[in-house]
Amino acid sequence: MKLTDRPSLQALGECGGSASVKFEMFEDQLMELQELIASKRARVGVIGLGYVGLPLMSAFHQAGFSVIGFDVDAAKIDQLLGGKTYLRHLGEKFVTHMLQAGRFDATVEFQRLHEADAICICVPTPLGVHNEPDLSYVERTADDIARSLRPGQLIILESTTYPGTTRDLLLPRLEASGLICGRDFFVAFSPEREDPGNLTHDRLAVSKLVGGVDTVSTMLATDLYRRAFKNVVPVSSAEIAESAKLLENIYRAVNIALVNEVKLILTEMDIDVWEVIKAASTKPFGFQAFYPGPGLGGHCIPIDPFYLSWKARELGVPTRFIELAGEVNRGMPDYVVRRTALALNERNKPLRGSAVLVLGVAYKPNIDDTRESPGIEVIEKLSRLGAKVAYNDPHVPRTPKMRRHDLGLSSVALDPESLEKYDCVIIITNHDAYDWNMIADNAKLVVDTRNALAGIKSDRGGHIVQA
Asked: Of these residues, 15, 122, 300, 424, which one is catalytic?
């Protein structure tokens, strides 16, 4: 939208229930922010410098903007200002490049939020103990922004959440500052679409959805993201963008649950589910391949569907597909443990007292992200049943402390000599760094949850179990 294409006074002056304001006041604020974005003189602030926020800050810096990152973790800030990254899959060069360019800063001082013209919120939105949304990080962040909010700022929420959060939760907290959305500041939602470790897609080419709480907020956020991303798709509201993000991940969760359930059936029938999927994939229409595994990991697929099911319960609407998919996927670590116990039993070894090596605690290949990793769950379950469990992961030298887990383990050596010490090896994450031939040749028993050893021939023979 251009300034010459003026919408109605109501569209410009109302936002989330705020009263209409004079168009002249609105136009001055809007023109200034538009010009800052168009000239790339706007300073972009990013709150939450994790797997979403850090790449986003890098993208805006790469596009020519000055950026300032905010995080409560002082250790992260120190690493970045020292030219280092704590997310290894991003590489080291982008941090040193930002420092050398002189357009980058990072801080734990949230009172400096007034320095940013656009602020992107990339904080966690986990689940509580009863699978209810935990929006405490968003709430605290909104209050932090409100304390420093000034006229002419654009606030964009990227954290995944249920439809209505931007308008009904974020907006009122910001307007508690006394400023009015649509006149003094602007608000939008743009869901993150990060896929850590994916080298197939250019992340800046992945379409960026943008939906504002009003027409002008959508326009401003779209203008901003178009300077950094190759394809930006504006939608009619923040609620549309919020819902689209949930649908994307519910679609994946349901289909993964389906193929996991099919795997349980076909395994009992001694049918190779991986070959079945490969055969079905020859159909050029009506089928998309999803693959089974030991459970879901990462911050999106195991969590996001429950945001919509929670909201649906509030409305009295059943969500049978979502809840069943969650039940199937959450049960996969137990299935892996049962298959391991049965495989050991067939070799006259009880699970209790057996030495078990878990390969991979990252939730997906070639990254160091352990959020919601099924590997962590499998280790805990095996340990509770009396197994002596160790792990190896070339990307995770030590298990981090998480919200619900603190194993305190360090990655052990992986070589022919060390493999001889274990009664069973469980493949959880199929990192490229693993030498599968060496593992197949030297492990006494392998429980393979990823089909990593497909086609591998070994002298031992008969010691590889699919799970």
From this structure: 300
